[in-house]
Amino acid sequence: MPWHLYGHHLDEWVVECDQFGLKIIAKEAQQYIAAYWARKGQATAEEAPESTVPEFTHDTFIEVLADFIVADNQIR
What we know:
Helices cover 54% and strands 0% of the residues. It is mainly alpha-helical. The mean pLDDT is 79.
């Protein structure tokens, strides 16, 4: 089945899976998926940079909350 999807419906398959957060793991499809993302000028999931979201800690929460309050003028 994956051969039919990447052979005839690659763009739709990749877009739909991406929208639903589904990772395509079919080994035989990986080169076609990488080519699709390269054609779109985007990195593959393996090449994408790691998330820059900091680890959750009490101190981080307070810092981010204070930044939000000041930036969004929540002090009245």
